[in-house]
Amino acid sequence: MGESKRMLQLLSCVLILFVVFGCTNERETELRRGVGFMKSLTSSNPADQLAAAHYQANTPEGMIMLYHASLPADGSYPAAYSDRQSLQQWSILVLSGNKENSLIIEGYGEDLAKPIIVEEITFKKRE
User: Fold this and answer.
1) Residue ranges per structural domain of the chain
2) Angle at Cα 63 formed by Cα 96 and Cα 92, nearest 5°?
3) By the 8 A CB rule, do 78 and 34 touch?
């Protein structure tokens, strides 16, 4: 009897952990996908590099235009903004970087005061 009770407690703990970690990460995973997609638009192949140059993606506004122009139609990626006043929950903020030819991408969840994700993109100098 004691062994089955212990097994039930262990199973309950595993189920609780599964629910807690399984449900809370869906939106964060979507946010991470959006940031990764944005980073991939600048360096994955020559066509993407040409598109990045066309949209002047080394500026926050240009990167957001490129991001929105490249999004799939299914609505599975978060919105992106270049100013904090327009920022919404579960979205991406694109800011000028700390050095030349760089951008900072911040992913926000429920708390708009503290980003969940902070990534920096550095663009290769184009001749």
Assistant:
1) 25-122
2) 75
3) yes
Q: Is 28 helix (H, G, I), strand (E, B) or coil?
A: helix
Q: How far apart are alpha carbons 41 and 77 in whole angstroms?
A: 14
Taking only the tens place, the pLDDT of each residue in 99-115 is: 888 999 999 999 999 99
**CA nearest to 81, candidates 112, 50, 56:** 112
Mean per-residue pLDDT, 21-49:
81
Dmax over CA atoms of the chain, in Å, equals 76
* Other residues' Cβ atoms within 10 Å of the Cβ of residue 57: 25
Read off the tokens for 122.
Answer: 């550095």
Report the number of secondary-structure helices (H) and strands (E) in the chain: 4, 4
pLDDT confidence of residue 42: 80
Q: 24-31: long-range contacts (C-beta < 8 A, 24 or more apart)?
A: 27/90, 27/109, 28/109, 28/116, 30/76, 30/77, 30/78, 30/90, 31/78, 31/90, 31/92, 31/107, 31/108, 31/109, 31/116, 31/117
Closest among 72, 69, 34 to 51, alpha carbons compared: 69
